[in-house]
């Protein structure tokens, strides 16, 4: 009787909770890395501070953190090169977003088609495999010659850079579909469209989201190249322009802003993944 | 009635040789019967089932269901796989109702039917759970409920309990007999366990490998006896059960034994 009472109170008393355990994960499977990353960031910041404080590096090459912070505030207040920080930022974000939307709306359907259809695969495989390893800077001159120096050439350049990872991952998503799952759906009476809609698409979704995440990352890294094209606005332009005047502190401000946004996007994509494909790795 | 007539299947192996996976198999599956195909691994059981399901065309022969030739997969033949094929992103109820969704049944009705079927397999309280929250045996029960949802003419089951522990397996066998007794579905069931074949089948067909062939038919009545008396021990300890077990056991092992002895002579 007393035993029962005691064991009953054990689960209800929060101070005396049983030890909760779970399976040893393989790899990182949700392990907390936040504190480690934060410590690394602080360490790097400290190294930067010390290196500049003791003049280990000439200030022209590496400005002090304080200078960069001051310059950041100055750019926020007064803008840079005839435009406010917000104008630079929105110009860059607009290009990245437009390119991402175009790359996704072409790359996902085409990638799925290439995973499913012999003709789609046959026709598009060669051009995509041919162009995607090229560095965007290599075909940048062609973009300028063909499309001029306006927004179009910049967005096309970014789109080309983002398209390949999205398209290839959608293909991989279709390929990862187990045949038993298809057969199960067919023997439940699925039509072609139903099979695509309820089986193929959700099965490929995790890979598609990974592709989008990689694509947006590639987009940010191509941004500076895109804004080399006679831009007067944009974070990439700001960095390039500052480098001409050896304004290293402004270069740092620009890099910091790109890094912050790329990080935020990547994080947002991960949240989207957790929301859209909560079953990932669980079946 | 499901009729398989002289069904042969040839595959090409990776090295280009021809594999004779099924050799002139003939089989009838009548209303209210459970036909169990029994044989060692690699004797063409899955090949036969895949052909009946319509996943695999025959090299020769024919399969008809109620007079209609079988050419492609369809909702008139429900399939339960060894590996569970539930959709990880759908709840248990949605998984069960998948075939109804394909058939255009409205959501309300789908849900009612799914709950009814989950009741039949004893999972009524798991309608809103997700597959990864269930044990292997429970997932197989969901698979059975899903295959029954479209009210197929026949249930095809490819070693559905092969991956389960023996205790769960016994429960599942009894559950399947209950489902069969209540729905009157005909069932084609594959196993490599002689005991399971004798316990579940109204007919047991024994297959032998290379080429995959049906070598014997047995009409058995233990399953009807179980459905009426529900006494497992009486059945397992019946002398007829042990006799049939031994007879089938020697049949299953014979072709291999012959092959072995031939090889020994050659050496
Ligand atoms: N797709 C395939 N290609 C080539 N050979 C196959 C294929 N599927 C099955 N086989 C061969 O056919 C034979 C029968 O296989 P299967 O029907 O799966 O046997 P069981 O289900 O009885 O274990 C085996 O020898 C197997 O290797
Ligand atoms: Mg098999």
TrEMBL record, chain A:
Its main location: membrane. The chain crosses the membrane at residues 36-56, 93-116, 128-149, 155-174, 220-239, 246-269. Keywords: Cell membrane, Membrane, Transmembrane, Transmembrane helix, Transport. It is a multi-pass membrane protein. It comes from the Bacteria. Residues 89-276 form the ABC transmembrane type-1 domain. It is found in: Cell membrane. InterPro entries: MetI-like, MetI-like_sf. Pfam families: BPD_transp_1. Belongs to the binding-protein-dependent transport system permease family. This is ABC transporter permease subunit.
Automatic annotation (TrEMBL), chain B:
It holds the Pfam family ABC_tran. It comes from the Bacteria. One of its GO terms (molecular function) is ATP binding. The keyword Oxidoreductase does not apply. InterPro entries: AAA+_ATPase, ABC_transporter-like_ATP-bd, ABC_transporter-like_CS, ABC_transporter_ATP-bind, P-loop_NTPase. CDD domains: ABC_NrtD_SsuB_transporters. The keyword Transport applies. Keywords: ATP-binding, Cell inner membrane, Cell membrane, Membrane, Nucleotide-binding, Translocase, Transport. Residues 4-234 form the ABC transporter domain. Belongs to the ABC transporter superfamily. This is ABC transporter ATP-binding protein. It comes from Azospirillum endophyticum.
């Amino acid at each position: 009787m007393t035993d029962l009472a005691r064991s009953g109170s054990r689960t209800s008393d929060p101070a005396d909770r049983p030890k909760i355990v779970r399976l040893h994960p393989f790899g990182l499977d949700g392990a907390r890395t936040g504190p480690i990353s934060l410590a690394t960031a602080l360490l790097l910041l400290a190294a930067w501070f010390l290196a500049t404080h003791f003049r280990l590096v000439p200030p022209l090459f590496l400005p002090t953190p304080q200078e960069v912070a001051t310059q950041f505030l100055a750019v926020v207040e007064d803008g840079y090169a005839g435009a406010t920080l917000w104008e630079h930022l929105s110009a860059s974000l607009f290009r990245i977003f437009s390119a991402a939307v175009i790359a996704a709306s072409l790359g996902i359907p085409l990638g799925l088609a290439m995973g499913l259809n012999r003709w789609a695969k046959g026709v598009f495989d060669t051009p995509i495999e041919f162009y995607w390893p090229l560095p965007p800077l290599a075909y940048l001159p062609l973009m300028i010659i063909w499309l001029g120096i306006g927004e179009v050439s910049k967005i096309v350049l970014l789109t080309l850079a983002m398209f390949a990872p999205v398209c290839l991952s959608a293909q991989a998503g279709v390929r990862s579909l187990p045949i038993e799952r298809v057969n199960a759906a067919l023997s439940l009476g699925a039509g072609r469209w139903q099979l695509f809609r309820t089986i193929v698409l959700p099965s490929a979704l995790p890979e598609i989201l990974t592709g989008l995440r990689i694509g947006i990352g590639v987009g940010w890294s191509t941004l500076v190249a895109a804004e080399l094209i006679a831009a007067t606005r944009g974070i990439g332009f700001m960095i390039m322009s500052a480098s001409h005047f050896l304004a290293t502190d402004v270069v740092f401000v620009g890099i910091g802003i790109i890094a912050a946004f790329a990080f935020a996007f990547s994080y947002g994509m991960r949240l989207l993944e957790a929301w859209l494909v909560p079953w990932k790795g669980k079946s | 009635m499901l009729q398989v007539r002289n069904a042969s299947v040839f595959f090409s192996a990776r090295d280009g040789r021809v594999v004779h996976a099924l050799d002139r198999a003939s089989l009838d599956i009548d209303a209210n019967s459970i036909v169990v195909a029994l044989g060692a691994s690699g004797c063409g059981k899955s090949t036969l089932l895949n052909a009946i399901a319509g996943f695999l065309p025959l090299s020769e022969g024919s399969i008809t269901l109620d007079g209609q030739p079988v050419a492609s997969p369809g909702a008139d033949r429900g399939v339960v796989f060894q590996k569970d094929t539930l959709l990880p992103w759908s709840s248990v109820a949605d998984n069960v109702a998948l075939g109804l969704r394909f058939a255009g049944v409205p959501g309300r009705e789908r849900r009612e039917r799914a709950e009814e079927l989950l009741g039949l397999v004893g999972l009524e309280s798991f309608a809103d759970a997700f597959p990864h929250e269930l044990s292997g045996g429970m997932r197989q029960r969901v698979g059975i409920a899903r295959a029954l949802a479209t009210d197929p003419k026949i249930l095809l089951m490819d070693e559905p309990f092969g991956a389960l522990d023996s205790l769960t397996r016994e429960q599942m066998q009894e559950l399947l007999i209950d489902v069969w007794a209540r729905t009157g579905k005909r069932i084609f069931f594959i196993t490599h366990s002689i005991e399971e074949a004798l316990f579940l089948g109204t007919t047991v067909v024994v297959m032998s490998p290379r080429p995959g062939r049906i070598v014997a038919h047995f009409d058995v009545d233990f399953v009807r006896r179980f459905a009426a008396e529900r006494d497992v021990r009486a059945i397992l300890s019946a002398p007829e059960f042990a006799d049939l077990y031994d007879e089938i056991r020697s049949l299953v092992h014979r072709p291999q034994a012959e092959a072995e002895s031939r090889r020994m002579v050659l050496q």
